[in-house]
Known about the structure:
Shape: extended
Helix content: 25-40%
Largest sheet: 6 strands, antiparallel
Structural class: alpha+beta
Number of domains: 2
CATH architecture of the largest domain: Roll
Number of strands: 6
Radius of gyration: 21 Å
Strand order of the largest sheet: 2-1-4-5-6-3
Number of helices: 3
Amino acid sequence: MRTEETSALAAFPEGVVTAIDPDGYPVSVRQNLLSYDATTGEMYVSWPDGVAVAAGPANLLCHSHDERLWNIRALQIKGRLERRGGDWVFIGTAVTPPANMVVVLWRAARSNRAAGQRYLEKRGLQRPQVNWAAIKEMHRRVRLEQPD
Length: 148
């Protein structure tokens, strides 16, 4: 697993470590330099002053995409955060390899549609009508204002 994590991480210049604060609420910090040790599965994490964090479950999430938000790639490493002396260390325990994001987004869209339908049915509501003509007109105006 360590080799898999390290080779997958090499594709990302930064990541976000999410852990919990002393009250059990999630707290996240971006790490610009990913110094993940393939042998131990450990990575030192820099927390900003004033951001409280506690030892416990944590994860490292990396993602990237192009300037048009396409070609999305993502990697998640689940683990835990430990205090060692004056330092915080993330220890990876399970990796979710980069997924085919087209499939992920398609599944999310399908799931959201079903959840929306359940919401409406539970409340006895009809699906709202969308004024597609107005939306298309806004798109047309935006395209006209865009420089070539």
